[in-house]
Structures are given as C-alpha cells and as structure tokens.
Design goal:
The protein is mostly helical. Helix content is about 80%, strand content about 0%. It has 21 helices and no strands. α5 packs across α7.
C-alpha cells in the first residue's frame, strides 16, 4: 500500500515538473512525460505493472473529452462541422482500409480483416495528443477542426474495430456496418444531450459551488455508461454532454459555480492527461517482453510502425488537399453573396423591414408571431457572421500543412490495441506496432510541429491585427452599453442607507444580467470572436462575484 502511494505521489510530481519544465526546454510536456514513462518502465517496481485498457477508454477519456467539449467554442464547431465530419468518418474509414492492405502484406498470415482492425486502432487522432497543438501559433480555425476531429473520430474507429473483429469469424456486411455506426452515434447523441440537460436541471437548484463541481465530475460517466450499456459510443455521449453543458451553463449556472468548475476541471485535465502519457511510456517493457516471448522481431515491428505512420500521413494529405479545395470553393461562393446578405441585414434593422424581408424570403408568407421574426433576424445575423468568419480566415496550404502534420496518435491507439481479443493472430506484435506508431507520432510530429509552424507562418501585419482587435472591442463595449441601458436606474437620494445600497445592488445585478444575455445572444449568432467574448463574459462574472461579496460583507 505504501509503495503504491509513493508511486502516485511521484507521478503527480513528475506531471507537475514536466508541465513547468517542458515549455522552457522547447519540448511539449506530453513528450517529456512519455520519455519519463519509458525510463521508469525499466525500473523493477514497474516490471509487473499492468494497466487495464478499459480504465483509459472508459475511465479517463470520457472526462477528458467532456472537459475539452465544454471549453470548445460551440459556434466554431458548428461552422467547421462539415470538415470535422469528413475527417472523423470518411478519413478514418479510408485510412483503416489502406492500413489494412498494408498490414496484410507485411505481416505474414494476418489477413485483411485483422489488418483493418489494426488500421482502425491507428487511424483516429488523439484529443489528448492534440493538446500539443494549442500551444503553437496555429490558426483558430485549424484548432477548431483538430479539436472537433479528435473528439468524434474515436467512435468511427471503435465501431470499425468491433466490426473488423466480427468479420474475422463471419461475413462482412457493409449495410450492417453503416447501421451499427448510425445507431452508435444517434443513441450516443440522445443520451449525451439528456444527461447534460438533467445535470444542468439538478445543478441549477444547488447553490453550493463545491457540491456543484463534484456533481459535474459525474456527468461524463452519467452520459458514457448508459450509452455503452446500450451498445452506443460512450465517448460521443460524453462529448455531446460537454458541448450542451458548455452552451447552456452561462445561462443556467451561477458565476461562482462556473468559476469553480473551470478551476477544478483544469486540475483534473492536467492530472489525467499527464497520467495518460506516463502510462504510455510505462507499458513499453511489458509490451517488448510479450513480443520476445512470441519470438517476433522487435525491430521489424518498429519498421512496420514507421511505414504505417508514413501511410497514415500520406492518406491524410491526400484527403486534406481536396478538402481545402472544397472549402476554397465555398469561400468564393460566399464572397459572391456577401453583399446580398449584408444588405438583408441592413433591411431587418427595423421591425417593418424585418417583416417585409421575412415575407420575401418565405414566398410572401407572413410571420405568425413576433417569435418568427426574432428567429428570422437571428438567422440572418448568424449567416452574415458566418460569411465574415470564413472570408476573414481562409484555409490555405499553410493551414492544410498544419492539419496534416498535427494529426497525432496517442493514448487511444495504445489502449484500443490492448482490447484486441486473446485469440488475435500475433497479438503482441500488433500491440507493439500500435504503441510504436503512437510514440513515433508524438516524437516526430509533436516534436517538430512548433518549429514547422513558425517556419511556414505567414507575415503578420501587426497594425492591421491591432486595428481589428480595437474595432471588435469597440463593438463589444457598445453592445454592453446599449444592453445595460435597457435597465432603468433606481432613484436614490440622500445618504447611502441599507435600503438604498440593496436597491443599487439589485440594479447592478440586473445590468450585469442584461449584458450577459446580450453577449450570449451574440455568441450564439457568432458575431464576435470566441476568445473576445469569453474574456468579456469572464469579466462580467468577476464583477458579479465581487458585487455579491461586498453585499454579503455589508450584511
């Protein structure tokens, strides 16, 4: 027992040390942790350590994906969903099939079905590994695409893995596979959505921020466990629960609760991410020992892994190229309609113009209620914001290079490989190949992505960027000013009595609530940069917390 506690304490120290020292050395912390784990794996104390892969797939990944989904800007996710969906489904399938052919040829007596199974294990990018990318200068659109891809492609990979394993003993059914995938995703989406709504409904009634945050720790599992029991994707359910929570929490939960959530979840992320990379390294000796017992060549397995990584990157590049062409075509089409949608936005600035425009767009059908008009105005505003978003930040060859090279493999690959059944042909070799692909991806891609992005980064006009930021802030302040003016100020004369202080507090809280509602509407419409809005909302939360603290001290 004491030995286990010492190991846990040392692991926490190593995670903290790597997080602090890695960036100073110019090396991403996950890479430091993998190397530390590899070094620790040769110590006698770790010789008998066996990490159950289900602990990673069912115990570690759901909270990590949930936390990433909560903090991901939902509007950017919606805008990039076409690219995300293609990378998460089509690319995973194509990569798995290409790798299946490769493994069938280079690994004797493996067969195509088992090759596809190993290809499905290697094909998805890792949400934890892509955290490396967020520390680079990559554009926000690329981050949104990579985040969304890594959150969703695990479902495709795991369904393919299960299907390929079944196909080794039975006939393969294309439509059966499509039906299984559709069922897995649809059921997971429904369960994740319900889990988030029920969680918010419960947490809204609890005023204690600490208790509220403890309940938030259960939400990923409240979503993922029922989904897995029903044969759906628990990881997708956790992601959907996180997205819904991230969208609705500013309207449903108090600032104190959300601040507590943010601080505590950052700590959980740090520990779990670090534990994932450490365990990857620690497993190396046991994996090598299994391969040696099978009298298979370790060097050959590593060479096969290197070939698989090259094929993965080539397939990814071959897919991303046409994807960028499609996105460029869409941008040109949006540029042609930009003036028309902006003109429509100007016309709906008045109630009469909004009603007229609604009737024109809907073939002279008149709106049935004011709510129809409000939804129409909101939709037009959203379309204008989307057009400006895509035209302001086009994806060129530099961004395409980042998307290709940033598709890192990580802990999901290692954990999924260990779920291969015991009767799998050359199982230790397949696990070693998957592990080697993940490590090579982290070392080669993760170790070079920073310098690569710096080298290909386009020149930046600092004055233009500063001017755009100032214009964005000016529009934001104007929105907050006009929304705050909708609240009628109280009349307080004479000295500041307890009654007048309470009246002033209620007024200030009402102003903050009106400003927050206006900012959240702007967030849903996408009319401001996600980071600018996040900072403004955080400032409003801080103002409300400070005001309530002063009020409680005055009492």
């Amino acid at each position: 027992m004491t030995e286990t506690l010492v190991i846990l304490v040392l692991a926490l120290v190593v995670i903290a040390f790597a997080t602090l020292v890695g960036p100073k050395l110019g090396v991403a912390a996950p890479l430091v942790l993998v190397l530390a784990g590899v070094g620790a794996s040769f110590l006698p104390v770790f010789a008998s350590v066996e990490i159950e892969p289900e602990w990673i797939l069912a115990g570690v990944l759901p909270p990590l994906l949930y936390s990433s989904a909560v903090s991901m800007p939902a509007m950017n996710f919606r805008r990039e969903f076409g690219a995300i969906g293609g990378l998460s489904v089509v690319l995973v399938v194509v990569t798995s099939l290409a790798l299946g052919l490769f493994f069938m040829v280079v690994i004797p007596d493996l067969g195509f079905a088992w090759g596809v199974a190993l290809g499905a294990i290697i094909s998805p990018t890792d949400a934890v590994a892509t955290s490396i990318i967020k520390r680079t200068s990559v554009s926000k659109r690329v981050v949104a695409i990579l985040d969304g891809e890594s959150l969703l492609n695990d479902a495709t990979a795991l369904v393919l893995l299960r299907t390929a394993i079944v196909a080794t003993a039975a006939a393969f059914s294309f439509w059966g596979t499509v039906g299984t995938f559709a069922y897995s995703v649809v059921v997971a989406v429904v369960i994740g959505w319900l889990a988030a709504l029920l969680g918010l409904l419960l947490r809204r009634r609890i005023s204690n921020p600490t208790v509220n945050t403890v309940l938030s720790f259960t939400l990923p599992f409240v979503a993922s466990i029922p989904a897995e029991v029903l044969g759906a994707s628990g990881l997708v359910a956790a992601v959907v629960a996180g997205i819904v929570t991230g969208i609705r929490a500013p309207r449903d939960l108090t600032p104190q609760t959300r601040l507590s959530d943010s601080q505590n979840w950052r700590t959980v992320e740090l520990v779990l991410e670090g534990a994932v990379f450490l365990t990857m390294g620690i497993q190396i000796t046991s994996i090598l020992a299994d391969v040696e017992r099978e009298h298979a060549g370790i060097g050959l397995a590593v060479l096969i892994a290197a070939g698989a990584l090259v094929i993965t990157l080539l397939v990814r590049a071959a897919y991303v190229g046409p994807l960028l062409a499609v996105l460029a075509w869409r941008s040109r089409r949006l540029a042609r309609v930009k003036d028309r949608v902006q003109g429509m936005q100007e016309r709906i600035s008045s109630p009469e113009g909004a009603e007229e425009t609604f009737a024109e767009v809907n073939r002279r059908r008149r709106p049935r209620s004011d709510r129809d008009i409000q939804r129409f105005v909101s939709r037009v505003t959203q379309v204008v914001a989307d057009v400006e978003y895509f035209l302001r930040a086009p994806l060129g060859w530099r961004e395409g290079t980042a998307v290709v090279w940033a598709g890192l493999r990580g802990a999901v690959t290692v954990a999924a490989a260990q779920t291969l059944p015991e009767g799998t042909p050359q199982r230790p070799v397949l696990i070693l190949v998957a592990f080697a692909v993940a490590v090579l991806s982290l070392l080669v891609q993760g170790g070079t992505i920073g310098p690569l992005l710096k080298r290909i980064a386009p020149p930046v006009d600092a004055d233009a960027v500063a001017g755009q930021a100032d214009e964005e802030r000016s529009r934001l302040f104007e929105l907050m000013r006009t929304s705050g003016e909708t609240i009628q100020a109280p009349t307080v004369d004479g000295q500041r009595t307890p009654e007048s202080f309470d009246q002033a507090k209620r007024y200030q809280l009402a102003v903050i609530a009106a400003q927050r509602a206006a900012l959240l509407d702007a967030r849903d419409n996408g009319t401001f940069d996600a980071d600018v809005l996040e900072n403004a909302l955080a400032n409003l939360d801080a103002s409300q917390i400070a005001l309530e603290m002063r009020a409680s001290m005055a009492e």
